[in-house]
Amino acid sequence: MNSMTNFLEVKTLEEARMELEKHWRPYRIAVDLQICEAGGRVLAEEVFSRIDLPPFDRSAVDGYAVIADDTFKAEEDSPVQLKCKGSIRAGEWPKMKISKGECAEIATGAPLPRGANAVVMVEHGIRNGNEVRIYRAVAPKENITPRAYEFKKGDKVASAGQVLTPPLIGTLAAVGAGRVKVFKPPAVSVISSGEEIVEPGEKLGKGKVYDVNSPSICEAIKNCGGMPKYLGIARDDAKEVRGLLKKGVRISEIVIISGGTSAGRGDIAPKVADALGRPGLIVHGLAIRPGKPTFIAVIQNRPIFGLPGYPVSALMIFDQLVAPYLRYLSGLPQKQRVVNAILSTKILSTRGRRELIPVKLTRKEDNIFAEPLLKGSGAITALSMADGYIDIPLEREIVDEGEKVLVNLFRGGEFA
User: Fold this and answer.
1) How far apart are CA 150 and CA 166, in angstroms?
2) pTM of the model
């Protein structure tokens, strides 16, 4: 495919997706992991309780296991005296049986002995040898967590698609799930290209700029459940670009390269990608502003997404084009991170092309306002200040001040 000719044949985002899915069918892989290794992953299956939880009636407090009827006359100035048959610690199974006029000292979480039907808190009783004075009455079942109070054996505890957070991992461990099936996070190779790009932290020479795209795209990949593999910076040299693209195809499910995607003399990434194999370059040019230079190639059933070099453009196109596939592959729900806002300034758009406008959000009383950051897609201040972006459709030319708009969020925070 002639990449320069194709660049003139821009496609809508929907057309680009349809073209991609003719050549690439993303499929998810489920792997079996120990529960302690599965943190942050997404469940690929429903999980059911293997036990009643708790598996027995247990004490909810430190105190004395009693027959509630024996305590009904207990008062601060007129305690009831009971015979103590011993102590029960957590993890022990009690062999004793509590009869009328008897009790047992019991620890929080310990199984309730036979015959007992309530627990008196430790501060409401005083033990002296084998005798215990009870100073407060309790009702049947008071201070007891009954068997299967939280889950019955066979109850559903978690659903496919849930992220394994620390609380959920603890819950699954409590019901006996030692191993779980989770979606394997897609590996995504990340490459920046351009003669002017320098690794952050290195000395900045004249005419050079630091690589912004790779760190921000790697973080965006993580937010979508993917596993970024940073491969480095490719100069404007076909051999260098080819080497990194081939490596990315070999070691990952998806490859992202930013920069080097337009029709300029140094923008060779689309040609190089097209020459790597069939079907090669399938899309070059999107009807989106900013983002027209975007390209898509497919090599060995691996998509290569070529994003614009400007950081704001790269992030917005990533969010529109790449993120939905990553969320699917990683098992995350396709939930939209959006918020309704009121536009603070009129926007003039280009008819016939979708326009993505980064915005800063502010909250005033009960309303959220979106301030367009019209500094150009290369402005780093727009990148640092933007909370998200609005998507102006093809047919719109004007979005008026005060109009309600939907903002796609870059991240969480107070507006998520």
Assistant:
1) 18
2) 0.80
Task: Please state whether beta strands 125-128 and 80-88 pair in parallel, antiparallel, or not at all (unpaired).
Answer: unpaired
Please say which residue of 165, 183, 201 terminates a domain. 183
Whole-number pLDDT of residue 262: 55
Q: State the pairing for strand pair 63-66/102-106.
A: antiparallel
368 bridge partner residues: 363
Q: What are 354's strand-pairing partners?
A: 288
| Same domain flag for 48 and 176 | yes
* pLDDT score recorded for residue 396: 81
Contact 152, 10 (CB under 8 A): no
- DSSP state letters, 31-81: EEEEGGG-TT-BBSS-EE-SS-BSSS-EESSSEEEE-GGGGTT-BTTB-EE
Domain extent for 103:
58-145
Shared domain for 276 and 324, answered yes or no, is yes
Judgement on whether residues 45 and 69 belong to the same structural domain of the protein = no
Nearest to 199 by CA among 239, 250, 235: 235
Beta carbons of 61 and 119 less than 8 angstroms apart: yes
